[in-house]
Amino acid sequence: MGPLTNRAVIRQVMEKHGFTFSKALGQNFIVNPSVCPRIAEEGGAAPGVGVIEIGAGIGVLTAELARRADKVVCIEIDSRLLPILAETLGEFQNVTIRNEDVMKADLPAIIAKEFPGMEVVVCANLPYYITSPILMSLLEQQLPIRSITVMVQREAARRICAPPGSRESGAISAAVRYYSEPRILFPVSRGSFLPAPEVDSSVIRLDVLSAPAVQVKSQETFFAVVRGAFSQRRKTILNTLSAALGLTKEELRPLLEAAGVSPGVRAEELTLPQFAAISDQLSGRAEP
């Protein structure tokens, strides 16, 4: 078999197994041979490291991870890919394929069973439609992982990695920075995939923090504030939080002022410590 990034090889394997791309699953296979080795290297695959891969495709990234890491566990939702992966990854003894939905998988149990004594990282080429839910699920579970390196839509990469207080920041960027230190690693053009998507991509890495970036009295209140603040981003923080949290402006105004936040600012102007200060002012009240 030729290289798995060769379009002719991909088509041959697909025809052999009667496989067709699923738009519903957002399947795009990588055909640029330089991309997966770089993801594996910059994602931290190395001796002594275990890797969780989300979505294997036909195994292009999986193979690069397996060449570098001690063990790779790939969580692949599409059962149609299992016979293909058995063929394309047959040479690797350190790869395990689990046919399940990562959003339903018991990741703490998988890590405990599959990676005893290892540092663990996550690598993935994520479908665009479910990027944010997967990232937040991984972070919110506070798994014993060192980093998450994923390829996402370029616009999503900019939003996810935007620093608080910048125009591109949003609820996802604030939430991600609560748990991790994100950065964009490198761009990937749409021509690097088969079939080619309509947008370009970027690879990002989230280095997971040992403790949240800010300490708050209530995480539930903190994330309610973040979501509410960005729910109507053109309006002031007083208007958005009043509507989102069910408080009158008269009730909310002194709480914002006590947190050191002007009621007239917009959510994109706030930093994580300011969101935390608002949250702590609210946490003594009934939970939003």
Give a concise summary:
With 288 residues, this protein is of the alpha/beta class.
Task: Summarize the structure in words.
This protein is α/β, with parallel strands linked by helices and 288 residues long. The chain has 2 domains: 7-208, Vaccinia Virus protein VP39 (Rossmann fold, 3-Layer(aba) Sandwich); 219-282, rRNA adenine dimethylase, C-terminal domain (Helicase, Ruva Protein, domain 3), CATH 1.10.8. Helices cover 39% and strands 17% of the residues. The protein is built from 12 helices and 9 strands. The chain has helices at residues 7-17, 35-42, 60-68, 82-88, 107-114, 131-140, 154-161, 171-179, 219-229, 237-245, 249-258, 272-282, and strands at residues 29-30, 49-54, 71-75, 95-98, 119-125, 147-153, 180-188, 193-194, 201-208. A 7-stranded mixed sheet has the order 4-3-2-5-6-9-7, with helices on both faces. Strands 1-8 form a two-stranded antiparallel sheet. Strand 3, helix 4 and strand 4 (95-98) form a beta-alpha-beta unit.
What CATH first level of the largest domain would be assigned?
Alpha Beta
Mean pLDDT: 93
According to DSSP, the number of beta strands is 9
Q: What is CATH's topology name of the largest domain?
A: Rossmann fold
Helix/strand order: HEHEHEHEHEHEHHEEEHHHH
Share of helix among residues?
25-40%
Strand order of the largest sheet: 4-3-2-5-6-9-7
Count of helical segments?
12
Provide the domain count.
2
Shape: elongated
Using only C-alpha atoms, the radius of gyration works out to 21 Å
- Specify the CATH homologous superfamily of the largest domain: Vaccinia Virus protein VP39
Q: Determine the strand fraction and express it as a percent band.
A: 15-25%
User: Helix/strand-derived class?
Assistant: alpha/beta
Uncertain stretches: none
The major sheet is characterized as: 7 strands, mixed
CATH architecture of the largest domain: 3-Layer(aba) Sandwich
Our measurement of the CA-to-CA distance between the termini, rounded to an integer number of angstroms, reads: 57 Å
